[in-house]
Design a protein that fits this description.
Oligomer: single chain
Number of helices: 2
Structural class: mainly alpha
Family: Belongs to the UPF0337 (CsbD) family.
Distance between the termini: 32 Å
Radius of gyration: 19 Å
Pfam families: CsbD
Number of domains: 1
Order of helices and strands: HH
Shape: rod-shaped
InterPro entries: CsbD, YjbJ_sf
Length: 67
Amino acid sequence: MADMGNKFDKLKGDAKEGLGKATGDDRLRAEGKTESTAAGAKDAVQNAGDKVKDAAAGIKDGLSKDR
């Protein structure tokens, strides 16, 4: 499941990026884009880890039923 901190960081980054675009502040826009991208990547890694754990649990359950 996605971490709420990652979602907050993504929203914060999106807001900074939008504010940077609106004000013409390229540094703020780039900073916001970087924060948003990093939060999205962390979320994707956590989701992938959760899927691996779920798959491993399913395999374990399947093996224990065969016995």
